[in-house]
């Protein structure tokens, strides 16, 4: 059963490295987190959820991470 989730290992490693490099400030690693969760959903390793529900609505369709509109 060790192979479960190996398909997304590189995404997980990038996400974890980002967290370590940013003192575990997860807001700075949202793109990596999104990519990791998308990988897991695509491979049916977790339930499909809309990205908006997971808090990534502002990262869909290449929208910038930071909201610049006032």
UniProtKB/TrEMBL annotation:
InterPro entries: CHCH, COX19, Cys_alpha_HP_mot_SF. PANTHER family: CYTOCHROME C OXIDASE ASSEMBLY PROTEIN COX19 (PTHR21107). One of its GO terms (cellular component) is mitochondrial intermembrane space. One of its GO terms (biological process) is mitochondrial respiratory chain complex IV assembly. This is Cytochrome c oxidase assembly protein COX19. Pfam families: CHCH. Its main location: cytoplasm. Residues 8-42 form the CHCH domain. It comes from Ursus americanus. It comes from the Eukaryota. Keywords: Cytoplasm, Disulfide bond. Signal peptide: none annotated. It is found in: Cytoplasm. The keyword Cytoplasm applies. Belongs to the COX19 family.
């Amino acid at each position: 059963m060790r192979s479960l989730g190996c398909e997304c290992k590189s995404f997980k490693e990038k996400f974890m490295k980002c967290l370590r490099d940013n003192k575990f400030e997860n807001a700075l690693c949202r793109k990596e987190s999104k990519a990791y969760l998308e990988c897991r959903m695509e491979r049916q390793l977790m339930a499909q959820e809309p990205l908006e529900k997971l808090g990534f609505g502002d990262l869909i369709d290449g929208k910038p991470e930071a909201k610049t509109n006032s």
